[in-house]
Design goal:
Elements: H1 2-12, H2 20-28, H3 39-47, H4 49-61, H5 74-80, H6 85-98, H7 106-124, H8 136-149, H9 153-169, H10 173-178, H11 189-194, H12 205-228, H13 235-248, H14 272-283, H15 291-306, E1 309-311, E2 318-320, H16 325-345, H17 349-363, H18 368-382, H19 387-400, H20 406-420, H21 441-452, H22 458-473, H23 477-488, H24 492-498, E3 513-514, H25 518-521, E4 529-530, H26 541-552, H27 557-572, H28 580-589, H29 595-611, H30 616-626, H31 635-648, H32 664-678, H33 684-696, H34 702-709, H35 717-728, H36 736-749, H37 754-765, H38 772-787, H39 793-810, H40 814-841, H41 851-867, H42 874-881, H43 914-930, H44 932-948, H45 952-968, H46 970-973, H47 977-981, H48 989-1004, H49 1014-1019, H50 1027-1041, H51 1048-1060, H52 1076-1081, H53 1090-1102, H54 1106-1125, H55 1136-1147, H56 1168-1211, H57 1216-1229, H58 1234-1237, H59 1242-1263, H60 1282-1288, E5 1311-1312, E6 1318-1319, H61 1338-1360, H62 1372-1376, H63 1392-1395, E7 1403-1405, E8 1424-1426, H64 1475-1485
Antiparallel strand pairs: 1-2, 3-4, 5-6, 7-8
Helix pairs in contact: 1-4, 2-6, 4-7, 6-7, 7-8, 7-12, 8-13, 12-14, 13-14, 13-15, 15-16, 15-17, 16-18, 17-18, 17-19, 18-20, 20-21, 20-22, 21-22, 21-23, 22-23, 22-27, 26-27, 27-29, 28-30, 29-30, 29-31, 30-32, 32-35, 35-37, 36-37, 37-39, 38-39, 38-40, 39-40, 39-41, 40-41, 41-43, 43-44, 43-45, ...
């Protein structure tokens, strides 16, 4: 029955009508392609193909089903019925091949799946091997049918995109113009064209469900085949199966998670991924191949899933996926399967598992989310290892954590944090002693994490600090205990565990991973090996806290944020006590340049305060750090500060009846307010801004006001009234009766205390809401309070302001208000005038007067005079001026006055105390604000007082007065701003800071400009001896002034160099007028102040843009250096410091363009596409800027520097040392572009390279302990003087007419320079000596000048004689340079017999020196060996060195064609026919 049914279905497939030739063709091409069938036959076969294939499968399956007996042999059925099984296989291939086309219909896809299942069934039947049913290509095609039939994401996307384009084509014309054409592959053209006519590629949900069910059935059948059909001899097919199964692991979700069992339970298996994992399990059996190799390939494929990477066709090319829920589920399933396989395979799987763990470490993407998931996967798999394998891997991992790759060290920290969440393994006696430490979680914290906190990479430092904070904050008991033990110093147990730290000698500090080549690692996982690392010693608490403070000031934002987090965590957990040093760090970070750091510090400091509410030191630090930030220019930071202030103070204000000392939060709020009222009144002004912002947000309710008022009669009264005074300005709806009642009690009791100021302020704010009778009564009472002169100046000032508000509210017009003020305040002025005049005109004067009362009258006079200036007469001016004379009186002859200032009017017969004088000046300033004539008379004398006055209070008040007058009478007062700026160098730090504050305010409001020397005086505060003043100066310059004028620093930079070096010979720079006193005070010239000057220069450069850096670098060369090259400025010792500063600035890293520095983002990482776009833009920008910079360097800077170098060498200016260091730095920066930069001027390149080499040798010689004996080796007189100038600087100068002499080291082996030119360290160099610009190239001028000078020197030595090598010069030279030896070299020919005797004294020369003037000279840029004569006899002129044959000849750089030049030498033996050959021989001899 089974055979007959099979035959019917086979005939339905048309097996009898298929030609044998077609079948043989399919088999001959190895199923790589198919031949078309007859159209009618194909139509007949495919019409009911799906049903036929399904029925045929059922019929043939009976031959496989062991439960059915006596079914016969299927191969016998084929033979008996004259049917070819080869034809059946060919037909099945025809169905399978159709789905290779993306246009396959649903029916064709289903037929292909059924055909593949039928082929697998044939392989399962006994005898398939004998009948050669298996073919590897067809087998793989059947496997690929699963992927080909399931629509890929790209196919659906392409269809939707097609529909979208069809819709848009019906839109307006503009949309069609903007549409970008879709890029298509060549084989997709037909698909897109036919897509309009038929929708066969569109798959409905029902169609997808049918295909999915057939795929599921096919996989079940294939797993049954794998159980009985070994693939051990078919490794390619087994690998193909493995790739298919791993691709199917993420085919669809698995409800309830992956649950594997043994044996396979097909009844419980409902999803494709479950079948795929079962298939992977079957492949790991020995009958399908070597288990080790299979596991390696399998784990390599699963690695991408575990790391959430998308493998492309099984290769190692991976692209990051979005970390979605489906991706995470697939990762968890892969981890579960690996754990299952390790449990099943056991010992053989452990080595491969260790390799997998290593690959996870080395291939995890360097992104935070991927690292976190990768670390979790690693730790889960790590639990499958035994103790021995566990510690062995951890030993490898510890070395991995010290690798030079930043991503490795970053991931190591994530793994350690995941390890800390695991329970510790107990000690195992079987383990090696040095590996026991890895079982202890404390080891990883105290050795690895802490060590990485000082990593060179900012991302690693930040991550390590975050891990340390997590150990304290998270619920990890072992981690917290470890940190606590470390901070408390109880780490002895850990030292015992560690034992003696590795005794092996480690010479490398960088550790690399060694792996096989990438082509080999594609086939299977390869193990990684690492070198032995060094271990870090455990740090103590002081080192840790010091490290955290340093990290809190790190240059990178992410590091600072993490350090603050750790610091606060340690303090919050009471691991160590809060110290002022630690709290100062928190205060400073509240003003951090980065807004994110400021916000984090505000929140963390607030959390710390709430955790330790009774710590008074912390309370003060919180106030000084958080409250001033309410005026932060960044809105988000300002909101965070208001939130913290609201959390600590405002939310804790409750009805006094509900107040309890047991409530720490309420007590904290009132403690903070008390500190504000009694100790930190200067911070109260910030609360005014805070309450104004809150009032705009309707933060205050009537309930809150009522609760606050309940505290006004308690021990919180001062703080409560302070809050009410701030609230009343923006929320005047208060309980007026309560406020007036409190004032009445205060007025009647005459008890003037801290409440008085705030009550007066509240009354002034609610004046408009009071009754007229009440206002009139309050005006009289406040006037009486002032006229009693029993209040402090602070209360008087507030009383006068309240009096003004009451009068203003009491009157309807401004005229009426002024009349009332004249009446009320006029009475106060008369009282003060009467009192002061009695003292002035009395016999005893101020000596018998009550100083306190006098001060109160002066202060009240100044406050009242501002409200009624018409009531102030000339007598009052004279009375106030009578108190301005100093204790010793002022000279009336004006001998000490500057010529530009008039005689002071502040003189008198009576000497007064400094307190009275200070208040008198303050009162005078208030009078000047209302009377311009008085200001004109007094301003010059006020400015003079800044110079001659010794009292700090007086100078402070005068500074404030002048700056206030500048706001009122800008044109008149601005000329005296330089006198105020001089106070930046005042002896008292308070005056210096006050001056900076006042000048900053004027600059911000643009009352004054950066004119004259103001800018230079302001930036000189950057080197102030007081650290707080330096910090404040940086804040003012960067955060207040630079934001208003972005080019402020760059515009003044060049003149800064002239100004601070006091160089005044330039016709443009440093021309501002200064007195000798000012020059002395602000002088930074001289070598002793060089460090201070460089501090200023570098600070300014740090805040340049790249464009400004580029322009300033050009200006340094053209505005400073070129002036010396062109002769506009003399090259002398006076210019030494100026030139030195210029070269040091040009060498410093701050002037280099930041575009060449690669910085990772400190904030949230961008999307992949955005990051890639930014990277491409940065590379393009960097390349463009680099080309421009190199061109500018070669064309504009190097010629100037080279010319100036010659002049500095000639005149032996010490700045030559800095010039050489600049060239050295340039060569380092352009190490890879040297040949390109100097392609047109090789001679100049050789000169610079040689001088640099000699300079480096000299520097090394000075630092070493071995001294070079003078005269040990003689040199050519033409050697470059760059090095000898550096040696001789500071000893004695050389006259212009004297040729300098140079020392060299013994001959060394030739080296290869960065220019690619073979050189020697003792080779001489041709140096140009230029004094002005020249039209021809510098190298040409250098060659010609050097040659001429050398020839002239040689001629002079012939006439004057010379000394033996090693002896001193005779005559004037020997007396002036007794320690210097000179070698005499000649170009006279040496005889062969004497040539050998001179070989020992050979030295290297850049070029041979002719003994007489020659018209055309061919100079060699290579190395030539010239013999040094032993005696200055006439015979030496006939000697010739054999080494002259080694001379390398180069043409002059300005000659493009390298044709050999002819010496103008006539040979008696030469004739006209062989004239050219004779010259050639002559050239060779030379």
């Amino acid at each position: 029955m089974a055979g007959a049914a099979a035959v019917r279905e086979l005939e339905a497939l048309g097996l009898r009508r298929i030609s044998a030739a077609w079948v043989e063709t399919i088999w001959e091409v190895d199923f790589t392609e198919t031949e078309p069938l007859d159209e009618l036959l194909e139509e007949e076969i495919t019409e009911n193909a799906l049903e036929a294939l399904s029925q045929l499968y059922k019929s043939i399956f009976k031959f496989v089903d062991q439960s059915q007996q006596d079914v016969g042999d299927v191969w016998t059925v084929f033979a008996e019925n004259n049917l070819s099984h080869r034809a059946l296989v060919a037909v099945l291939h025809h169905f399978i091949h159709v789905v290779q086309d993306t246009k396959a219909s649903v029916t064709q896809r289903l037929c292909a799946l059924n055909a593949a299942g039928l082929y697998f069934l044939l392989l399962e039947i006994p005898g398939s091997v004998a009948n050669r049913i298996f073919h590897p290509v067809l087998f793989n095609k059947c496997l690929d049918t699963i992927k080909k039939n399931w629509p890929a994401a790209g196919e659906d996307f392409r269809k939707r995109k097609k529909d979208t384009q069809a819709k848009s084509s019906r839109g307006d014309g503009k949309a069609r113009k903007r549409a970008r054409p879709v890029r298509q592959k060549p084989n997709e053209d037909m698909f897109e064209e036919e897509d309009d006519e038929e929708d066969t590629d569109y798959l409905s949900t029902r169609d997808l469900l049918l295909i999915r069910n057939d795929i599921f059935s096919l996989l079940k059948n294939f797993l049954r085949l794998l159980s009985n059909f070994p693939l051990k001899e078919k490794p390619d097919s087994a690998l193909h199966c493995l790739q298919l199964f791993t691709d199917l692991t993420n085919f669809e979700p698995v409800p309830g998670g992956l649950q594997l069992s043994d044996p396979i339970n097909f009844e419980r298996t409902k999803t494709v991924p479950e079948l795929a994992y079962y298939g992977l399990k079957l492949l790991c059996s020995p009958k399908h191949g070597d288990v080790d190799k299979t596991l390696r390939c399998l784990f390599q494929r699963l690695l991408c899933i575990i790391l959430m990477l998308d493998g492309v066709n099984g290769t190692r090319s991976v692209a990051l996926l979005g970390v979605g829920q489906r991706t995470i589920i697939a990762r968890d399933q892969a981890i579960t399967f690996v754990s299952y396989i390790v449990d099943e395979v056991k010992e053989p799987a452990l080595p491969v598992l260790r390799i997998l763990l290593q690959h996870i470490c080395t291939k995890v993407p360097d992104k935070a989310e991927f690292r976190t998931h990768g670390a979790q996967a690693l730790v889960k798999l790590l639990t499958k290892l035994s103790s021995a394998d566990y510690v062995a891997f951890l030993d490898w991992f510890h070395k991995y954590s010290l690798n030079s790759k930043i991503s490795y060290r970053n991931f190591a920290l994530d793994v350690i944090m995941a390890l800390l969440k695991l329970p510790e393994r107990g000690e195992d006696p079987s383990l090696q002693p040095e590996h026991q430490k890895y079982l202890d979680n404390k080891y990883w914290i105290q050795v690895v994490i802490l060590d990485r906190c000082s990593d060179k990479a900012p991302t690693v430092r930040s991550r390590a600090l975050s891990c340390l904070a997590q150990c304290l904050d998270l619920n990890i008991s072992s981690a917290f205990e470890s940190v606590q033990e470390l901070m408390l110093g109880t780490t002895k147990s850990l030292h015992k565990t560690l034992g003696i730290l590795e005794s092996t000698d480690v010479t490398e500090n960088r550790y690399s991973l060694a792996t096989a080549a990438s082509s080999q690692s594609r086939d299977a996982l390869k193990t990684f090996e690492v070198t032995d690392p060094r271990e870090s010693m455990v740090k103590n608490v002081s080192e840790i806290m010091s490290m955290l403070r340093v990290r809190a000031g790190d240059e990178r934002t992410i590091v600072r944020k993490s350090a603050i987090q750790v610091l606060v965590s340690i303090l919050k957990q009471n691991v160590v006590l809060c110290t002022q040093e630690d709290l100062t760090v928190l205060q400073d970070r509240c003003r951090d340049p980065a807004a994110s750091v400021r916000k984090q510090t505000l929140q963390l400091t607030t959390d710390l305060l709430l955790a330790q509410p009774s710590n008074e030191l912390l309370q003060k630090a919180w106030m000084n750090g958080v409250i001033p930030v309410v005026i932060d220019p960044e809105n988000t930071v300002q909101e965070k500060a208001l939130e913290c202030l609201n959390q600590v103070v405002m939310q804790q204000i409750k009805n006094y009846g509900q107040f309890s000392d047991q409530d720490k939060r309420q007590r904290l709020a009132w403690d903070v307010l008390a500190l504000l009222v009694f100790e930190h009144q200067e911070l109260c002004r910030y609360l005014t801004k805070a309450f104004l912002l809150w009032s705009q947000q309707d933060k205050f309710s009537s309930t809150f006001i009522k609760d606050l008022i309940t505290h006004t009669d308690t021990d919180h009264a001062a703080a409560a009234w302070m809050l009410l005074s701030k609230i009343a300005g923006s929320f005047p709806k208060l309980n007026y009766a309560k406020i007036i009642g409190s004032w009445d009690d205060l007025y009647r009791s005459k008890n003037i205390d801290n409440r008085t100021t705030h009550i007066l302020s509240v009354m002034g704010n609610i004046a408009h809401h009071l009754l007229e009778e009440t206002r009139a009564k309050l005006i009289d009472e406040v006037k009486n309070l002032i006229s009693a002169f029993c209040s402090t100046p602070e209360i008087v000032s507030q009383a006068v302001e309240t009096l003004y508000k009451l009068c203003q509210a009491h009157c309807k017009t401004l005229e009426e208000t002024q009349v009332l003020l004249d009446q009320v305040c006029g009475e106060l002025i008369l009282i003060c005038q009467s009192y002061i005049s009695n003292i002035v005109f009395s016999d005893g004067g101020t000596q018998n007067a009550d100083e306190s009362m006098l001060v109160k009258h002066l202060f009240t006079l100044g406050e009242a005079a501002q409200l009624c200036p018409r009531k102030v007469d000339k007598q009052i001016f004279l009375l106030v001026q009578s108190f301005l004379a100093g204790p010793l009186g002022l000279s009336l002859d004006g001998s000490d006055l500057p010529a530009s200032q008039p005689l002071t009017e502040f003189s008198g017969s009576a000497a007064v105390s400094s307190v009275v004088r200070a208040h008198a000046f303050f009162t005078l300033g208030k009078l000047c604000l209302q009377h311009e004539d008085l200001a004109k008379k007094c301003i010059a004398a006020l400015a003079r007082e800044l110079e001659v006055c010794q009292d700090v209070a007086v100078r402070n008040n005068v500074i404030i007065i002048i700056c206030d007058l500048c706001m009122r009478y800008t044109t008149m007062v601005v000329r005296y701003i330089p006198n105020v700026a001089v106070c930046l160098k005042d002896s008292d730090p308070f005056i210096r800071k006050q001056t900076m504050v006042m000048l900053t305010n004027l600059l911000q409001d643009e009352f004054i400009k950066w004119k004259g020397s103001l800018f230079f005086r302001f930036v000189s505060v950057l080197v102030d001896p007081d650290e707080s003043i330096r910090s404040f100066a940086e804040f003012c310059l960067v955060h207040l002034l630079l934001k208003r004028n972005q080019v402020m620093f760059s515009q003044q930079f060049i003149e800064c160099i002239f100004h601070f070096n006091a160089y005044e010979k330039h016709d443009k720079y440093n021309k501002c007028s200064q007195t000798e006193r000012e020059k002395t005070l602000f002088s930074l010239k001289g070598n002793k102040n060089k460090e201070k000057r460089m501090t200023i220069y570098k600070f300014l450069l740090q805040h340049f843009t790249d464009e400004q850096r580029f322009n300033v670098a050009n200006k340094l060369a053209h505005d400073i250096l070129a002036c010396f090259v062109d002769g506009m400025l003399p090259v002398d010792m006076e210019a030494n410091e100026l030139l030195s500063d210029t070269f040091v600035v040009m060498s410093c890293k701050e002037i280099k363009l930041t575009s060449f520095q690669t910085k990772s983002s400190d904030d949230a990482q961008l999307d992949d596409e955005m990051a890639m776009a930014n990277a491409v833009m940065q590379v393009a920008q960097k390349k463009l800027i680099s080309q421009v910079q190199k061109k500018n360097f070669v064309e504009n800077i190097i010629p100037i520097v080279s010319s100036l170098k010659s002049q500095l060498e000639q005149k032996h200016i010490p700045a030559l040392k800095d010039l050489m260091q600049y060239l050295q730095e340039v060569m380092q920066d352009y190490r890879n572009e040297i040949k390109e930069l100097f392609a047109a001027d090789r001679q100049l390149a050789a000169e610079l390279e040689y001088d640099l080499k000699k300079y480096e040798e000299q520097v090394a010689g000075e630092e070493g302990t071995e001294c070079v004996t003078v005269g040990a080796t003689a040199l050519s007189p033409r050697a470059s003087p760059s090095v000898r100038s550096a040696v001789r600087i500071g000893t004695e100068a050389i006259s212009p007419g004297t040729r300098a002499v140079q020392l060299t080291t013994p001959q060394q082996r030739p080296l290869v320079s960065p220019f690619g030119i073979p050189t020697s360290t003792s080779r001489a160099l041709l140096t140009p000596r230029l004094t002005k610009r020249r039209s021809m190239p510098l190298s040409t001028m250098a060659i010609l000048n050097s040659a001429k000078k050398a020839v002239e020197m040689s001629q002079k030595r012939k006439t004057t004689g010379s000394a033996l090598p090693g002896s001193t010069l005779r005559g004037s030279r020997s007396t002036k340079y007794p320690d210097t030896a000179v070698s005499l070299q000649s170009l006279k020919e040496n005889t062969p017999s004497e040539s050998s005797s001179t070989n020992a004294s050979m030295t290297e020369r850049a070029i041979s020196t002719p003994d007489r003037t020659i018209g055309n000279v061919t100079f060699g840029a290579g190395v030539s060996y010239i013999s040094i004569t032993q005696t200055p006899t006439a015979e030496n002129s006939r000697e010739r060195s054999k080494e002259q044959n080694n001379l390398l000849c180069l043409t002059s750089p300005d000659k493009p064609v390298p044709q050999p030049r002819q010496w103008k030498v006539e040979s008696p033996a030469a004739n006209k026919t062989d004239k050219f050959q004779g010259r050639t021989r002559s050239q060779k001899k030379n």
